[in-house]
Amino acid sequence: MENKRKTKDYNPTKCGVTHFLNKIGGKWKVLVIYAISKKCNRFSLLQRAIPDISKQMLVNQLRELEEDGILERTIYAEIPPRVEYKITKHGMTLMPVIEVIQNWGLKDLKQMAK
Questions:
Q1: Alpha carbons 6 and 10: distance in angstroms, whole number
Q2: Contact indicator for 84, 41 with CB cutoff of 8 Å
Q3: Which single residue of 35, 39, 60, 68 has CA 20 to 30 Å from 51?
Q4: Which of 55, 5, 58, 68 is nearest to 27 (CA)?
């Protein structure tokens, strides 16, 4: 049985923001992409980098990001098998957006600490 995402194709007005949120919205996807960009490219490293995400949720987010062409999964034929993730060329176009989010968050944290 195929796992269908509820909001993947919901965009009745062809809105760019809605399309963006359908691709990487939610609590975890931006964190997963950011962690992979910082060389957390294996499942166990991602679990350590994002400790509050469940194993199943991480699997789901990685699959969706791969399905959307944002991540690429490479399986190495070793014993034990090794799987690594990297951001695709298409996914790299998100990095300027994620950097702006990161900078805004850091500035807001500093302001809240005052």
A1: 8
A2: yes
A3: 68
A4: 58
In sequence order, the 6+-apart residues with CB closer than 8 A to the CB of 76 are: 82, 83, 84
Task: Please give the model's pTM, rounded to 2 decimal places.
Answer: 0.87
Beta bridge partners of 84: 74
- pLDDT of the chain, 114 residues: tens digit per residue: 455 665 567 788 889 998 898 899 889 999 999 999 999 999 999 999 999 999 999 999 999 999 999 999 999 999 988 999 999 999 999 999 999 999 999 999 999 988
Compute the distance between CA of residue 55 and CA of residue 57 in angstroms, rounded to an integer.
Answer: 6
Show the tokens assigned to 49. Answer: 């980098």
CB 66 within 8 A of CB 72: yes
- Residue listed under structure tokens 């944290």: 109
